[in-house]
Amino acid sequence: MIAFPNIKINLGLSITEKRPDGYHNLETVFYPVALEDALEIRTSPGTDRKFTLYQHGMEIAGKPEDNLVVKAYLLMDKEFHLPPVEIHLYKHIPSGAGLGGGSSDAAFMLKLLNNHYQLGVSEEQLEVYAATLGADCAFFIKNRPTFAEGIGNIFSPVDLSLSGYQIMIIKPDVFVSTREAFANIRPHHPEYPVKEVIRRPVAEWKDTLINDFEASVFPQHPIIGDIKKELYHHGAIYASMSGSGSSVFGLFAPDALLPEIDWGTDTFCFTGTLK
Ligand SMILES: C[C@@](CO)(OP(=O)(O)O)[C@H](O)COP(=O)(O)OP(=O)(O)OC[C@H]1O[C@@H](n2ccc(N)nc2=O)[C@H](O)[C@@H]1O
Ligand SMILES: Nc1ncnc2c1ncn2[C@@H]1O[C@H](COP(=O)(O)OP(=O)(O)O)[C@@H](O)[C@H]1O
After folding, report:
1. What pLDDT, on the 0 to 100 scale, is given for residue 168?
2. Residues marked as catalytic
3. Strand, helix or coil for residue 179
């Protein structure tokens, strides 16, 4: 059985408080975008190994047991005593991009196992499992526009459709650690709450829908800020870094002719249309 884990982008990201447990409370809107990995599971009988991971496409740092798809499998195996599986993961989503690729793979693994082995786990319970694998992982269970608060794990649906808008996502060859990006932030309550701004037309988002990580990440990695400027320069209606970076997305009008920009060979570039 095969699934196609997609990414999310963050529309606004306010970091409001540092919590006693070291994590931060935040407010953001997650929006799904169809930049996808491919994830396949096959039962592999007659083997002692619980799992074998075959990776294709972009490399991911770390051992197989560190991969979030394996962690998701082991979590479900503990609960449901699953048969051994072969896992094929084709990575197309860049890592360390603020696009939630690893979290999405993990959430889709939970859904795949639930469907393939007919485990009968509810979406709500899958969200509970997903939340133990990563702060934004549970979003990918329902995978629809969502307002997130708490540490990014308390969800409410958002009545927002960007259907038809074109998107360009650019990720330079720069790694931003989420932990470090948080460490450089002074939390505060936003002048324009994310939830209110996204009710306004996209054309009004430019100076009001803010990702707080930009202020901590751009000075350290000016190239990321330059990409955002470039996207505006070429006609984006709204542009922002996603999550803690290092990718930047630009939204363009449905009928706009997307610019052809030479970002250089080490830069990842995706264009698509939002659903
Ligand atoms: C902050 C967001 C916004 O979308 O960044 P991106 O990952 O998308 O860039 C996500 O919620 C991140 O989710 P995720 O990447 O799953 O975070 P985790 O692995 O759980 O946490 C990585 C590290 O970030 C810090 N962290 C994370 C989430 C949070 N609300 N407060 C924090 O302080 C902690 O130091 C933690 O050890
Ligand atoms: N299946 C996976 N895909 C991508 N990264 C993974 C995966 N499993 C574990 N990781 C680890 O998770 C970290 C964060 O990856 P990812 O979720 O893609 O980035 P981000 O949170 O910035 O969107 C990486 O350092 C990577 O080593």
Report:
1. 98
2. 8, 136
3. helix
Cα of first residue to Cα of last residue in the chain, in angstroms, is 24
6, 68, 69, 242, best to mutate for ligand 2 pocket (most atoms within 8 Å of CB): 68
Domain co-membership, 122 together with 173: no
Residue 113 and residue 195 in one domain: no
Look at residues 8, 6, 36, 34 and name the one whose alpha carbon lies nearest to residue 243. 8
pLDDT confidence of residue 61: 86
Report whether 62 belongs to an annotated binding site. Answer: no
188 plus 68 within the same structural domain: no
DSSP 8-state secondary structure symbol assigned to residue 104: H
Question: 49 and 180: one domain?
Answer: no
Provide the domain limits for residue 204. Answer: 166-273
pTM over 0.90: yes
ipTM above 0.90, yes or no: yes
